[in-house]
Specification:
The protein is mainly alpha-helical and about 200 residues long. The protein contains 10 helices and no strands.
Length: about 200
C-alpha cells in the first residue's frame, strides 16, 4: 500500500523532533527511552499516551534517515531543522510527499496565487487511481489529513498560513539538499524542491 493516514498526528513538530533526534544520536533505547518520554516527559506532552504516540511518529520519520540528518534536526537553525524534519516526513509518508510533487508544483507552474483546499479532495481521488488498495477514509479523516498537510506546507514556507494559503517561494536549506544529494534521496528532493 502506497498511501496511509499516518500524518493525522499533525504538523512537523520541529521542537519535539529536536528532542527525539538528540535521543537517537545519544543511542538512547529501551528503558532509558521510556524514562525520557514518559517519566521525564521530554516532549512536554499532556498525557503519557500522547507522548508515546508523538515519540513513535517522530522516531519513525527520523529512523528513515541517519545521524547526519538527525544532527541537522537537533543543531540546525530554524529553517535547516524545519527542512530536515520535512525531508524525513516526506520520506515517511508518500501521501505527504506526493502532494507537493504532483499538486503544489503544478500550482506554481500555472502561476496560481493560492492553494485551494479543493485540490486536496481531487488529490485524494487521484491517489486512489495510483493505489487501489488505499483505505477509504471517512470525511473527518480526510479533513484531518488535509489540515496536517497544509500545516506542514505552512511551517515549511510553501504557503504563508493555513487561512489564506498564499503560495510562496521556498529555498530549502543547503545543508538539507546536500544531505539528500549525498544519500541519493531523489524522491524526497523532487518533492520538496517545488516552486515558481
Amino acid at each position: 500500500m502506497r498511501y496511509r493516514a499516518d500524518i493525522t498526528a499533525g504538523s512537523l513538530k520541529v521542537p519535539e523532533s529536536r528532542v527525539i533526534a538528540d535521543l537517537l544520536i545519544r543511542g538512547v533505547d529501551g528503558q532509558e527511552w521510556d524514562a525520557a518520554i514518559l517519566d521525564q516527559n521530554v516532549l512536554q506532552a499532556r498525557t503519557g499516551e500522547t507522548a508515546r504516540r508523538l515519540a513513535r511518529l517522530i522516531r519513525a520519520r527520523l529512523a528513515l534517515m541517519d545521524a547526519d540528518l538527525w544532527r541537522l534536526v537537533r543543531d540546525g537553525t530554524g529553517d535547516t531543522a524545519t527542512h530536515a524534519v520535512l525531508a524525513a516526513a516526506v520520506k515517511h509518508s508518500r501521501l505527504l510527499g506526493d502532494f507537493p510533487d504532483l499538486v503544489v508544483r503544478e500550482q506554481y507552474r500555472i502561476f496560481a496565487k493560492t492553494l485551494s483546499t479543493t485540490l486536496w479532495d481531487h488529490y485524494l481521488d487521484d491517489c486512489r487511481s495510483r493505489d487501489p488498495d488505499m483505505p477509504v477514509w471517512n470525511e473527518s479523516t480526510r479533513i484531518r489529513l488535509r489540515s496536517s498537510v497544509f500545516q506542514i506546507l505552512a511551517q515549511a514556507g510553501y504557503i504563508d498560513n493555513t487561512r489564506s494559503k498564499t503560495l510562496q517561494t521556498v529555498h530549502i536549506a543547503s545543508q538539507v539538499t546536500d544531505y539528500l544529494h549525498q544519500h541519493n534521496e531523489s524522491y524526497v528532493l523532487r518533492c520538496i524542491q517545488v516552486g515558481p
